[in-house]
Amino acid sequence: MRRLGFALALVLLSSANLHAQSAWADKLFGADKTHDFGSVARGSQLKYDFKMTNIWKVPLQITDVRVSCGCLTATPSTKLLQPNETGLLHVHMDGRKFNGPKTIRVYVTVGPKYISTATLIVSANASGDVVFTPNDLDFGNLHRGETPTKAFSFEYKGSMVNWRVTEIVKNANAPFELKVEPLPGAVPGRGFRVFATIKPGPATGAFKQDVLLKTNDPINPVLTFQIVGNVQAGLTVSPSPVVLKGLKVGEAQTRKVIVRASKPFRVTKVEGQADGVSVAIPERQDMTVVLTVTVNPKQPGELRKTLMIHTDLGAESTPLVIEASVEP
């Protein structure tokens, strides 16, 4: 009897240890350990990024990622997280591989010295009644200032007689505008074509926005369609900022600055040249232009100037920052 009690105690202790291990791995993801895509059209390609942050003082390695369904893939942006470093777990759920409600568990194991597994929950409800063409909309890489338009359509194929869309909603900060019109050949009120046009001058960087279709269907009242893309800066400057070291009063230093764009351009002027800072502008038009920056300070102290590079690409301009600590 004593042996039985001792064995039971070992089992309970082992279970408690496993639970504790799971708990600390969950902290990698903070409060963001579940994501529900909601009701989506059958065939939708669903994407979400879980943020993971190493809050401990030792490096953590992602040793294994497992999923409970082949309709979902999970890929870490990095397999090694240094202390206080943040990475992403990219989740892709394929709406062609399931129908109706689906809940998937994602197991993320970290180590190697202390091993623990976090559990994430991803869910969606794929409705076969509404067909999207294409399944999602990807603008790909586009340069800031471009305003392309792409279209998608959706059509109701179910049996609900009075089915209709009551509202189409997007985030106010989305980098695109929407225009909706009836889908040719579809039953009135059951099919629509939606045009998405990139706004002028959106923020640079990747975007991933959901468009919500609210319907009068009590079973699937909200459908989700995803629009993604990556806005690249029209002009890039390298290096940025320009940092000069060992600079002394009356001793000039020069640096080369490379300005790039997606098409040939000419630098028309550089505003802010003063206090011993000057810029030589070449008379050439190219996709890459090299500026020569000369700094000849007149007094000691901290020097920080922001110049503005203007080009012949319409309103395209970009800042050029100069930093230096000037010795007497």
Provide the descriptors you would attach to this structure in a database record.
single chain, 328 residues, mainly beta, Immunoglobulin-like, 3 domains, nine-stranded mixed sheet, four-stranded antiparallel sheet, 24 strands, 58% strand, disordered N terminus
Task: Offer a quick outline of the entry.
The protein is mainly β and 328 residues long. It is 8% helix and 58% strand.
What this model shows, in words?
The protein has one helix and 24 strands. It has 328 residues and is mainly beta. It starts with a helix and ends with a strand. The chain folds into three domains: 99 residues, Immunoglobulins (Immunoglobulin-like, Sandwich), CATH 2.60.40; 103 residues, Immunoglobulins (Immunoglobulin-like, Sandwich), CATH 2.60.40; 93 residues, Immunoglobulin-like (Sandwich). The strands form five sheets. Strands 1, 3, 5, 7, 8, 10, 12, 15 and 16 form a nine-stranded mixed beta sheet that branches.
